[in-house]
Amino acid sequence: MSPFQIISNWITSSYPKHVIAQHLAKVALNGYRGLDALYPQVKIKAEALIIKMSEDGKQISIIETFRTINRQDSLSSSVTNASGLKSYHQYGLSFDVMFKEHKWSPPSEDWWTELGEAGEALGLIWGGRWKSRDMGHFEWHGTREEFTWEKLKPHFE
Ligand SMILES: [Zn+2]
Predict the structure, then answer these.
(1) What are the tens digits of pLDDT across the range 34-68?
(2) 66 C-alpha to center of ligand 1: Å?
(3) Ligand 1 centre from 79 Cα, in Å?
């Protein structure tokens, strides 16, 4: 392979670390916030989740998407167990929602179950399944688990 080919392959690389680095650069350079700060495939899933829940009369609001390392580290242990770069919020791969009308207290637990299952049907991981449950939290690890924080963190330290 010629040096040119090596360099051009690197530039167009689809290595997970490069893909996420490009996304984070776009977020920073454009000052993206909210849904726009989500990695494109996660943004599409979040939008689909909003529509699905709205169709069922259970409207949700996005409360947080991208989160800086500083902000992650400032959160208390009652909110998160993850320190900076161990949360998918630092990579634009995660978002938190609540119910528009009922916030964190929907009329029944079924509302959370419906929300979680709708997210899972879109290929998202739902925090409501965790031992310390995070009902409004969703994250995405890629289609082949290529975007796990364990794989990404070393490249962003
Ligand atoms: Zn979250």
Answers:
(1) 999 999 999 999 999 999 999 999 999 999 999 99
(2) 9
(3) 9
